[in-house]
């Protein structure tokens, strides 16, 4: 998605009761030395912090991806390809980055799936919430959360500059795909989200 496309801001729904969902702000995705480290994470962090300041700890949910122990089906070949991530859930690489500690007063919603939409999230947000998504990576866990949430009837707003992709090109491609789902999924910048609060 071009910069121009992202800047064409749609009319957003009322976000006063929205939930900010910060997806997987973990060391494994933020550390430049990690095979999964996003080169965009540091840039996205400033926008994430601005959103978090506006939403507060009570309306912010932080998620974590954990590998778990299920290696059935396609997860077996997946972890064969990425053995560095085949560690116990307690390994420090799955810890939150230090700025994320305390972002939510609800602990973390942990899942061993890319998408975080599911019982752990809906138990907090309800079945058809309004969600503002931020985090990492745009082209994996963010898009994998946005699509099933929209399918279930949630209203999803993706704060593009508060998301970090595995690369700029993959980030742009994921934003473009999610933008095809308007009005169920709207892709905007964090300034538009803040203005709608």
Keywords for this entry:
197 residues; 8 helices
Task: Describe the SSE topology.
Blueprint: H1 3-7, E1 19-23, H2 27-30, H3 41-55, E2 60-65, H4 75-81, E3 108-111, H5 119-125, E4 130-136, H6 138-151, E5 155-164, H7 168-179, E6 185-188, H8 190-196
Parallel strand pairs: 1-2, 1-4, 2-3, 4-5, 5-6
Overview of the molecule:
The protein has 8 helices and 6 strands. It has a 6-stranded parallel beta sheet with strand order 3-2-1-4-5-6, sandwiched between helices. Strand 5, helix 7 and strand 6 form a beta-alpha-beta unit. Helix 6 runs parallel beside helix 7. The N terminus is likely disordered.
The termini sit apart by: 25 Å
Instruction: Output the helix-strand order.
Output: HEHHEHEHEHEHEH
Low-confidence stretches: 1-5
Shape assignment = globular
The count of DSSP E runs of length 2 or more, i.e. the number of strands, is 6
Number of contiguous helices: 8
Helix content: 25-40%
* Strand fraction: 15-25%
Q: Report the mean per-residue pLDDT as an integer.
A: 95
Largest sheet: 6 strands, parallel
How do the strands line up in the largest sheet? 3-2-1-4-5-6
Q: Compute the gyration radius: what is it? A: 16 Å
Structural class: alpha/beta
